[in-house]
């Protein structure tokens, strides 16, 4: 652990960069509760369950280092998110679990990370906090919602590779006080 950040080496060493994002990543027992009713066709594996805070897009090594420095400076307090609103985003074809309430400290964390991404020239989409439970869905049939109190004690920098298995890899982690 260096300066509060735990890093893991990256598998993707090419010059094209990596698709990176900042996220909240639940502990395995919490992720299992969230995804349990959506096991099966289209269900997101519990190990890939997360809440994106800021999508950074394809990022080269130098930019990645800057994002990591920014994340180190963000800080913030641990908080609890209450999830329990099940929704389908028809255009994307995904079933999501949305927060019933998002604590101010969680909103501030997302804002700080998104501001850093904007300073680096990254276009930002509207922030809609959610956890994706299933992909390729047209309705909510076959699954049920659960109420989950998720204690968030850190945030991560992760890589996305839709062609890989697992699809996501955590590259670094920063604790919240």
Description:
With 177 residues, the chain is of the alpha+beta class. It has one domain (6-10, 19-175): Cyclic phosphodiesterase (Cyclic Phosphodiesterase, Chain: A). Helices cover 21% and strands 35% of the residues. It has 3 helices and 9 strands. The chain has helices at 28-35, 61-74, 104-119; strands at residues 6-7, 18-24, 51-59, 79-89, 94-101, 131-135, 148-152, 154-160, 168-175. The strands form 2 sheets. It has a 5-stranded antiparallel sheet with strand order 1-9-8-2-3, covered by helices on one side. Strands 6-5-4-7 form a 4-stranded antiparallel sheet, covered by helices on one side. Strand 4 and strand 5 (94-101) form a beta hairpin. The longest helix has 16 residues, at 104-119. The radius of gyration is 16 Å and the shape is globular. The protein starts with 5 loop residues before the first strand and ends with a strand. Mean pLDDT is 88; it is low at 6-15.
Compact overview of the structure:
The protein has helices spanning 28-35, 61-74, 104-119, and strands at 6-7, 18-24, 51-59, 79-89, 94-101, 131-135, 148-152, 154-160, 168-175.
